[in-house]
Structures are given as structure tokens and as C-alpha cells.
Specification:
About 55% of the residues lie in helices and about 5% in strands. The protein is built from 3 helices and 2 strands. It starts with a helix and ends with a helix.
Length: about 55
């Protein structure tokens, strides 16, 4: 097992705790981007999504 896998395995609880504090969920517990999130308007994601859809 590589070093990253070992680190994740050893610190899974801490990683989960930190990520849960930084994630916004809707009423159905689905992860969502808040309206004021700076990533919300990055066009790179739109282009990536379009490219993925074309490949399907």
C-alpha cells in the first residue's frame, strides 16, 4: 500500500470530519454549491461537462 493510502486509512475519521464541515448539503442531503461559492461561475467545469457528454 502506498503512503497516501496509508495516510487516508489512518486518518479517515479526521478527513471525514473536516470535509463535512466544508460541504453544503440541501434538504435531501445532496452536496450542492452555495450561491456565493467562488467556484460556481468557473466556466472550465461547463466545458469539461460538455466534453464528457460528447464522449458518451
Amino acid at each position: 500500500m502506498d503512503a497516501l493510502s496509508l495516510f487516508i486509512q489512518k486518518n479517515k475519521g479526521k478527513i471525514r470530519e473536516v470535509s463535512d464541515r466544508n460541504i453544503t448539503r440541501n434538504k435531501d442531503s445532496i452536496i450542492v454549491l452555495p450561491k456565493d461559492d467562488e467556484w460556481r461561475y468557473e466556466k472550465e467545469w461547463d466545458e469539461l461537462y460538455k466534453n464528457i457528454r460528447r464522449e458518451e
